[in-house]
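Q: Can someone sanity-check these two? First one:
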Amino acid sequence: MAVGKSIVLLCLAVALLEIGNGGVAARKLDKQSLGFYELRRGEFSMVVTNWGATILAVRVPDKNGHIDDVVLGYKDIGSYVNDTTYFGALVGRVANRIAGGRFTIKDRAYHTYRNDGNNTLHGGHRGFNQVFWSVRERVTGDFPHITFSYRSYDGEQGFPGNLDVLVTYKIDGDLSYSVTMYARPLDKPTPVNLAQHTYWNLRGHGSGHDVLGHAVQILASAVTPVAAGGGLIPTGAVAPVAGTPFDFRRPAAPGARIAEVEGGYDINYVLDGETDGQGVRKAAVVSEAESGRVLELWANQPGLQFYTGNFLKGDVGKGGAVYAKHAGLCLETQDFPDAVHEPGFPKEVYRPGQVYRHYMLYKFSIKK
């Protein structure tokens, strides 16, 4: 614990680095290397860091050729330390919520760090977004990519077993990039559910406009409703979206019916679009009329958490942008929340010899 605290203090002391226009910067922090890495193909680019395997920027042209950064984030890396908004982070060991911060595997109870009331959220107080990842591989060229690795130790935030984790960010085309996540338990069965927690605003992160007017389509005919009384814990049921404000099977603006949803949208959708031979399906499409930007998300996971930035409250971001409520939206493909307690949900416990795989493809286009 003392080592972790010393790294955080060193990070705050020497890593208050302005997140600029890309390139690579690195500082040595107590045998840890903090780096910023740009992946670029023509006018399309993204910037990532090995602190939390976090996406810091994604820059995309609009219908007039103007390039904007369309993801929310902080202006300096120090603000990401102990951050609870999860801007651009790779979250785990188990994304979303575990009710009561406990679960059982083979009659043995495990207690995880409760950082969301009585529940564990996104892996606990110091989940995968709050650790240094190592750079396993970096490739430049027409299709640049970078792979980060992390070994999660037995007992980290209460989870059982050592776990090797990899994430690769790759530019796959002129306006597309992929995120590929792998995890492999080494010695004990453990739940695994990784998610990429980028906040999107296709008008531009600093536009001053919220996302309630974006057109959102989610290819799902059901959600996993949550129990009354707060906590956002699923009941275990699967409920159809037809006739409810959760129906985004056809493109619709979140702002049209958000007043009917207590607290705003923050719920898991049960994806049911047709899959290809690799189990990948189109999960969501988001468009913004003023910029002409369109984002398609494809993935191989059974669920998607749709979140409309309900807890943003004037956070100060890149370039002095102020992120008010609903300044960004998240599309987090995942296993279902609290799956460790729901036998009817897809299983998320992996055993030694098994490999967790999570693939996401983000495809941008411009509508003139």
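And here is the second, same format, sequence then tokens:
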Amino acid sequence: MSFLLIIYITLVSLLSLNYSPEAFQSDLTYGNETDRLALLKLKSELTYYYYQQGYLNSWNDSDHCSWTGLKCNREHPRRVTVLELRHTQLGSSFLAIPPDIGNLTFLITLRLMYNGFQGEIPREIGRLFQLQYLDLSYNQLSGEIPSSLANCLDLKGLYLNDNNLKGVIPLSLQSLKGIQELILYRNHLSGPIPEYLKSFHSLETLDLSSNYFSGEVPKKGIFKNTSACPEISISEKLDKDFPLKRLLLISSGVVVCVIILCSFVKFISRRQAKIEPSSSESPSTKWVERCLQMVTSIASVSWCWSCLLEGDLQPNVQTWPYPS
């Protein structure tokens, strides 16, 4: 009797689930739907430009592991491990990177360079605990580097160069002990260069150039041989000399305005002289010409100094290979 009761309960449970043959076939075809749904959401938020250019034509009802720019995991079928869309200018319609990308929790590689994305880096990327390579370079991303990236403990390469990022390098990133490449050049980062970087023994390539860091450069670890590199400009020099450069640039602008004004006065004087001819030039005309020559000389000197300082004051740190 108990055996029949168990069979009855099992049948009722199956019927209540409404498990149709179509659903069974869908599971066989697509397996885990988590990543597929996240990718479709990603597609819906990037609709206009994608559809116009046809970059996501393959993102349809087919198996998502066959879609453009994706690779799936063999050990965990239908889980996406690589998402790579580059040189597509997807962000040309003022689009940001959708936060739904944080739902692709099996991602190992995420590359979205050369796409013109704007806005901030989604904090949700910090949910990608298996991420090893993150490349968001050559976009127009702004805001600060999210501290949530510290959750990506397996990160080996972080490439955020050629954006508009500002603020300091987060202290929380000191958890990324295994990182091998940290590329942050050509942003608007400021503050001190983190001391913890010198303890990253796996770090092979570091590029912090063309930012606005201040303070002293660390002396140990990957920074050990910086004193032998003639291309490095210490931040103290930048802080000391940058006002002089700005003053010279402002002076050059004022001088240019004076030159234009003197040229206009000289033109009026000569025109008046033609109307009222005289045996010699008026004192005012000679004075204007002398002022014009003097101001032109000052402008030339200021411009030359500005050019020299431009070469000397490229801010901050270049690339250092880890000493062997």
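A (reply): Looked at the second one. The chain has six helices and 13 strands. Residues 255 and 320 are 42 Å apart (CA to CA).
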